[in-house]
Design a protein that fits this description.
A hairpin with a 3-residue loop joins β2 and β3. 33% of the residues lie in helices and 16% in strands. It is α/β, with parallel strands linked by helices.
Length: 286
């Protein structure tokens, strides 16, 4: 009498080997198709190695130079407001000294990539606020380490949020020369523009605000093809160490903030807001 056995019938070793070969061939074919290998094998740059040395303008000064003097340039504006920007390399900041010298706003580095937070952030962000300043936070972008959305989310979750208290500026995205390798982070002009669109859209979705962009005209031309995609929406914070803000990137008819020196009193980086104090408060309020 025949006996029924559960399970799979016995297969010769040669048949199993043939089947394995077919499966490997199919897998190789799939990995070669667009949208499969490209998605799974995308290589990201390592996380930043020295984020404490990366601040707004650190690479601008290295690539574009700095002005010899530290005195504030003569302003052609009807009104302007003095400000500073700081990061962990400034350590504990003497905010009362800055306030007494006429500084009324500050931007503080909060994050870089999705792995770094400024260890001096609390003293700098809260300290500036407690002296009466209008303050904001900025993110140092590394577009080769993770997506724009991931970095914007990390920024908002680690100090880059916004509240309508009249004293908190919208977050800023610092786009400048890569401190770790290829000037444009190994991305095409279109790739960088899309990365920034992703960052800005995510930031706005999470805060309700359009963020500021920090960038130099030289880097912008080289790495984005002088894109005009952001000028109508995102306020421009431009670094240029000299007597004027100089040529602006495409899309902007005027600058909102100007980082005019990297060697000013107390902290080094000093800025001017392009307008009177009431307009700076309006930017904070949204």
């Amino acid at each position: 009498m025949s006996v029924l056995r559960s399970g799979f019938p016995h297969r010769p070793a040669r048949s199993l080997a043939t089947l394995a070969g077919v499966l490997l061939a199919v897998l190789s074919l799939l990995l070669g198709l667009p949208g499969t290998a490209g998605a799974t094998a995308t290589r990201r740059a390592p996380e930043p190695r020295h984020p404490g040395q990366d601040w707004a303008g650190s690479q601008i000064a290295r690539h574009e130079g700095t002005a010899a003097g530290t005195a504030p340039p003569a302003s052609s504006l009807a009104a302007s407001v003095e400000g500073v920007d700081v990061s962990s390399h400034n350590g504990s900041v003497a905010w009362s000294t800055l306030w007494n010298s006429g500084v009324r706003f500050a931007y503080v580095k909060a994050t870089e990539s999705t792995s770094y937070t400024n260890p001096s952030f609390a003293q700098q962000y809260n300290g500036s606020y407690n002296t009466g300043m209008i303050r904001g936070a900025y993110h140092f972008a590394t577009p080769d380490t993770s997506s724009g959305a991931a970095q914007a989310t990390y920024f908002v979750g680690h100090g880059g949020g916004w509240s309508k208290d009249g004293r908190t500026l919208p977050g800023a995205l610092d786009m400048e020369y890569n401190p770790y390798g290829a000037t444009c982070y190994g991305l095409s002009a279109a790739g960088l523009v899309n990365w920034m669109k992703d960052w800005f859209a995510t930031y706005k979705a999470r805060t309700g605000r359009d963020a500021v962009i920090y960038t130099s005209t030289g880097w912008w031309k080289q790495c984005t093809g002088n894109s005009a995609a952001f000028g109508a929406v995102n306020p421009l914070w431009i670094p240029r160490y000299g007597s004027s803000a100089g040529e602006l990137p495409a899309g902007w008819g005027f600058h909102t903030l100007w980082q005019y020196t990297s060697s000013g009193p107390t902290v080094g980086d000093h800025n001017r807001f392009n307008g009177a104090l009431d307009r700076l408060k309006a930017l904070a309020n949204g």
